[in-house]
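Morning F.,

Quick status update on the modeling queue. The single chain you submitted on Monday has been processed. Sequence for confirmation:
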Amino acid sequence: MPQVPQTFFDALAVRTWCGLALAALGRAREEIDAINVYPVADGDTGTNLYLTVESAAAAVEAVFAGHETGADLGTPTLGEAARAMAHGALIGARGNSGTILAQLLRGMAQVLADDHAAAHTDGPGLCLALRRAADSARDAVAHPVEGTVLTVASAAADAADAAEGDCGTIARAAYEGARAALAETPGQLVALARAGVVDAGGRGLVAVLAALVETFTGEAPRGLTASETQVHARVAAAAGAEVGEESSAGACAAGGPAFEVIYLLEADDTAVARLRTRLDSLGDSLVVVGGDGLWNVHVHVDDAGAAVEAGVEAGRPYRIRITHFGAEDAHMAGGAGRPPRERVQRAVVAVVPGEGLAGLYTEAGATTVLARPGEPPASGELVDAVRRAHAREVVLLPNDADLRHTAAAAAEQARTEGVRVALIPTRSAVQGIAALAVHEPDRRFDEDVVSMTSAAGATRYAEVVIAERQSWTMAGICQAGDVLGLIDGDVAVIGSDVTAAAETVVDRMLSAGGEMVTLVLGDEAPAGVADHLEARVRESYLAVDTVVYRGGRQGALLLIGVE
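Structure tokens below.
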């Protein structure tokens, strides 16, 4: 739970701020979604900001958990917590607003983590962090537009610069400066003036800064009123009439690009500079944030394939997300008179650990959420996937025992939105494959869920991984670098050779019987391991079939399922 107030900006303050900001955005999410009209009126700014901060908060919690349970006991340093916050926001950034917020947090982290030995910073240090945040976010946007979150961030930094005092004083000054700037946004951007609202991204930033004030003072500042976020129509119209043509050129029009493309990118600075130029020529709303070899790319384009190809030329894009604005059924600019897209009756939403399995699941008709090693999806991402599935009934496959509570929270949220959701507690992707194999959308929902649950439950699962550190296990003490074979979540084999350990695991699983062995190979699995295991099964176990899939970067060297 967040602890307030905090005297200095230290690791605990970072943790507290993330928790309070997440709660604040949770309360304001629907309101922010409702006033989202720029750059595309797709009604998701509040949700995107929430998901971005949720990812940042989870990364900070992971750092604290590592210090509480690892060899390096104690509290993380300010630098560790700040870098975790920035990295979590970067990998979890959603939409235009979330991407910019990720860069704001990265800019702050660059200052907060500058002195690696520092336990905390004070008011002047917070001022520097807010200034770096505003400047770096503006630099990340290809064509900055006033009246947006960039304007609000700059105003917050300006107000902080003009104040003197401790972190609480600086945070309050930044909040008041941001709040005043937010009220002026309808006079700077035609799209806002016409809609009679303030900028949604700026509104979200004000909520985040309010949480910063509460972190250092223990008191939440006075919240925004409805009249402050939805300005009077006459005032808005008058303000809009005074906005120049330069600003109106940035207003979202019905003829804007058809797709939003977002992906994480591993690339060097030189390649990213060329990528910016290429994407800028393809579309608009271009934001590229990050650094140190990892970037989050966001752009609106008509040719989504070209935007992804540009990423491939620059480096290695992954977590690629393409949204067709025309396919959405609410809040779309220029969508008046267009009938809503009809919901399908039933869909499957599954969390998968690698790109290869994501393709397999997608081919089978599932909507997938990619969980990269060490980066489990948040509940908001699962809710978003349920929405993308656009179905009346959804079967949710978490495919990870540690995601069961996250998936349950997502299912509960989706139910409040009118979707019938059944959560099948699959603990591995191979159990999900078994469930998906018997999925029949044409039969009754309850019957389909029972059949899928039965298939998953009848599938034993295992994985072969490399131990990261010395630890006690059910099979004895393992050392860093040992090969571990886990069956149904428990370490059953400790060895030095991947192929030999995998063979032992398969033998133990088949000793209890089985009809089908599923092997999912990770990118780092040794060559020939699948052929060896297939031969072993064929020679030693009559009437047992083997199927092999490529999982990609899935964390485990090998996933094994026995039905």
